[in-house]
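The following record pairs a protein chain with its ligand, zinc ion.
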Amino acid sequence: MTGRKVLIVLLLVLALLVLTAWRNPNPSWIKDIWRKLPVHPDRKYNRRTLSSIEQVIIHHSAGPTTQTPLSIAQYHVGPNHISNEGIPGIAYHYIIDRKANVFHTQDLKNISWHVSGQNTRSIGICFIGDYDQLEPTEMQILQLTKLIQYLNRKLGRKLQISGHRDYSTKTCPGKFTDLEQVRQKLNY
Ligand SMILES: [Zn+2]
């Protein structure tokens, strides 16, 4: 190929990449499913601007590793939820399952209810599984750090990293989840 043809091919590839990024704002390793998850028929979350987000709060589902984003969403919005009437939508903005798949499960602009008193300024990220019993896999920790790195870049600031336990008497995200290791990996 001549230099000119190579240049044209490169420009086409670049245009395709830009178009793909514009159509799908999340990177391909994040499975964007939040528009497809069930929501409460009557209740709605309050909204926020992305500028009010200052931290990520890590959770675990404290259930079997076979849970899925869908089963968690169904539980949160349904009548069996601890609230007795269900909450407006799934509490977590992101979920990392046992196989380390990363799911985007809630609109970042929705102030979903995952930690009382912290919701307006926080993003909720949940590991599927009970990490009072199991250790998170290396892959799960790696995906969590990658996700926080991505969110820091997307929001243009270094988000504080907390566990639900920092704001409650619960052990959440489980006694085997070492958030200090995550902070170190990210050079916090
Ligand atoms: Zn929690």
